[in-house]
From TrEMBL:
Name this polypeptide is given: Chromo domain-containing protein
Organism in which the protein naturally occurs: Aphanomyces astaci
Positions of the UniProt region annotated as Disordered: 89-113
Superkingdom classification of source: Eukaryota
Amino acid sequence: GDADDELLSQELLPASSFVDRVLFPDGDLAYTNVESAVSKILNKRKQTDGEPEYLVLHADGNEYWTPRSRLVEYTSFITEYENSERVNKGLPPLRRSPRLAELDTEPTEVFQF
């Protein structure tokens, strides 16, 4: 293979405790600069002020109830959970508006750096 196709090794990562290499059980690999990457949303409840909280499973195996306002970077996980719950209740999954769905196209050119 090409030398550029190598996975990043621990030595190539910045010397910072804020960057971690996360290998998920299904073989996916991610590099994160948070304490522990979100792996999945497990449950939902409402706080007394009405804001939803989600039970978040992190890559390190820990679970925490987290307000939606702190999960803005993880909306795809919330959408996946909400759609799963809708399907379990016999409802159709939520769909994106056609205007936004147009943004979900794959790039036509591959850029190499």
